[in-house]
Amino acid sequence: MPESSFPRAEILAAVPTLFDERGELDLAANIRLYRALGDRVDGLFVAGTTGEFPALDHGERIALARAAVDTAGANRVVFHVGAASTRDSVRLTEDALALGVRRLAALTPYYLPVDLGAVERHFAAITTAAGDAHVYGYLFPERTGVVVEPADYARLSETTGLAGAKLSGAAADRFSDFRRALPEHVRLWSGADTALAGVVRAGGTGIVSGLSAAFAEPFAALADAVADGDADAERAAQARADAVLAALGGSPEGIKNALRQQEIGADTMRMPAPLTGPGTDAAIARLVAAERP
């Protein structure tokens, strides 16, 4: 007999930004990736951490947003507008809205130390510019140096109109604390790809998953199994998802390596990153072969 079922998790593929061998934006390869993902995931998370957003200029980010909207449809795109300056985040928001984007994510300020007042003003400027579009805060304390406690985020959501949050790193580790602190209508995603089952059972909306950009099927199967309450199918899908994490390491360079081996773009990183070695290459090759339809 199936166990109690839960709502099906929303899987947003945190897509990498694909470059050519010279490090220039390869728009055709990015479009090919968006098309390949198709309905294998529930949407695309564009120009986030996996997308190397700090290394993209404004025009490149908007070009990616346009390509994603044209390929997947506006309602299936979450476009990241986080930037080091509020001015740049607002400009990205305005230009994305002009393309039809209706869902936005915004990282907290980063690099310079900030207090909660600065975080609130930053988010408020973005939500004001966004109007009736949905804006989700993005908390990643290891990358930004900014820690926002669950109760503080609940207050920020109320005062600024944030519709949800993507929680990564240490924030994702406290997913249940955020869920308890926030009203039910505030949607929450975890950046911990393989934690999908726990996220759903804790009342979350789903995951923002870089790994699913390279291997969507294990995560879709896991979402289906949890929603159906099928414990055997969940164990099998969880093992597949764990194998993806073990091979790719959860890094943009690992994800790009896997896509290259599937003939989707080059594995060029614009941001400095460790090189993948022969052992990683071989492990990813075995996974590509195992997951091939």
What attributes characterize this protein structure?
single chain; 293 residues; alpha/beta; TIM Barrel; 13 helices; 48% helix; globular
Topology, element by element:
Layout (H helix, E strand, L loop, with lengths): L9 E5 L12 H11 L5 E4 L11 H15 L4 E4 L5 H13 L4 E5 L8 H15 L3 E6 L1 H4 L5 H11 L3 E4 L2 H4 L1 H7 L5 E4 L5 H6 L4 E4 L7 H12 L2 H18 L3 H10 L16 H14 L2
Parallel strand pairs: 1-2, 1-8, 2-3, 3-4, 4-5, 5-6, 6-7, 7-8
Helix pairs in contact: 1-2, 2-3, 3-4, 4-6, 6-8, 10-11, 11-13, 12-13
Brief summary:
The protein is of the alpha/beta class and 293 residues long. The protein has one domain (10-215): TIM Barrel (Alpha-Beta Barrel). The chain has helices at 27-37, 58-72, 86-98, 116-130, 141-144, 150-160, 170-173, 175-181, 196-201, 217-228, 231-248, 252-261, 278-291; strands spanning 10-14, 43-46, 77-80, 103-107, 134-139, 164-167, 187-190, 206-209.
Could you tell me the CATH topology label.
TIM Barrel
Question: Strand tally, please?
Answer: 8
Low-confidence stretches: none
Mean pLDDT: 97
- What Rg, in angstroms, do the CA atoms define? 18 Å
* CATH superfamily heading: Aldolase class I
What is the share of helical residues?
Answer: 40-55%
Structural class: alpha/beta
CATH level-1 class? Alpha Beta
CATH architecture classification name: Alpha-Beta Barrel
Based on Cα principal axes, name the global outline. Answer: globular
How large is the count of helical segments? 13
Quaternary organisation: single chain
Residue fraction in strands: 5-15%
- Main sheet: strand order: 1-2-3-4-5-6-7-8
Q: What's the N-to-C terminus distance? A: 29 Å
List the helices and strands in order: EHEHEHEHEHHEHHEHEHHHH
Active site: 138 (proton donor/acceptor), 166 (schiff-base intermediate with substrate)
Protein name: Dihydrodipicolinate synthase family protein
GO molecular function, one term: 4-hydroxy-tetrahydrodipicolinate synthase activity
Organism: Prauserella flavalba
